[in-house]
Design goal:
Elements lengths: L1 E5 L8 E4 L8 E6 L2 H11 L7 E3 L1 E2 L2 E2 L9 H4 L2 E4 L11 H11 L10 H9 L15 H13 L5 E5 L7 H16 L4 E4 L12 E6 L2 E6 L4
Helix pairs in contact: 3-5
């Protein structure tokens, strides 16, 4: 992100202008004085927020926000795991996972692709896939979102406070999985004070306060 400006939303004040870069192997902790600004920054990284001005480059390509279809190939390479469930309520968890395939142009798959089934088995979700969101417990809803996002085999993983929505058993499984992805070089970005949750050292800290975003890189110290 170069000379990026994000407009205020909710109770936030907006951010920018600022520069922010992610590199292979980065583990980033984001801290903010206003929750809405932190949420907006994570959503902007996920290409879900159009900037007021500035340039977003992904793998050397400058993104065009004028049409959502221009961003589909990039969205498929970014895992965004918010602190709320984003599922279609009148579909089963299985159908929600299948819809991800359809959204990105692969059609509704039956059965699920093996990489998604592996994630379901890892999180012990096989017997819950027939539930609709209204029938599932909050942890199962969050796990469905995690499975959907990580099964993209993403280039970047963005996470909003995992401790708030997973019990200890599933939380440990999730963090072990993220540690493995990080060891392979996938950048991780955690919103809020999640540095104590990461099993390897984080190297960047982002602070957002009074519209100003600052980045502290331990490698510069």
């Amino acid at each position: 992100m170069s000379t990026y400006v994000l407009a205020p939303t909710g109770n936030g004040k907006g951010i920018g202008p600022f520069d922010f870069n992610l590199s292979e192997g980065d583990v980033v902790v984001v801290k903010t004085d206003l929750a809405d600004d932190g949420d907006m920054f994570l959503r902007a990284l996920a290409t879900l927020v159009r900037p007021e001005r500035g340039r977003y480059s992904f793998m050397g390509r400058t993104l065009d926000f004028s049409d959502y279809r221009n961003l589909l190939s990039v969205k498929r390479r970014i895992a965004y795991i918010p602190n709320y469930s984003s599922l279609i309520s009148n579909r089963t968890l299985l159908e929600n996972l299948q819809l991800m395939e359809a959204y990105f142009g692969d059609g509704m798959s039956q059965p699920l692709p093996e990489n998604i089934m592996e994630m379901c088995r890892y999180f012990r979700m096989e017997d819950k896939l027939h539930f609709r969101p209204a029938q599932a417990d909050p942890e199962s809803l969050r796990l469905a979102v995690i499975i959907r996002e990580l099964s993209k085999d993403p280039e970047v993983i963005l996470v909003d406070g995992p401790r708030h929505f997973l019990g200890f058993g599933m939380f440990d499984l999730f963090m072990d999985l993220l540690q493995n992805r990080s060891a392979d070089g996938t950048p991780l970005v955690f919103l809020s004070s999640e540095e104590d949750l990461v099993k390897q050292p984080w190297n960047k800290e982002v602070r957002i306060a009074k519209c100003i975003l600052t980045v502290n890189d331990k490698r510069d110290l």
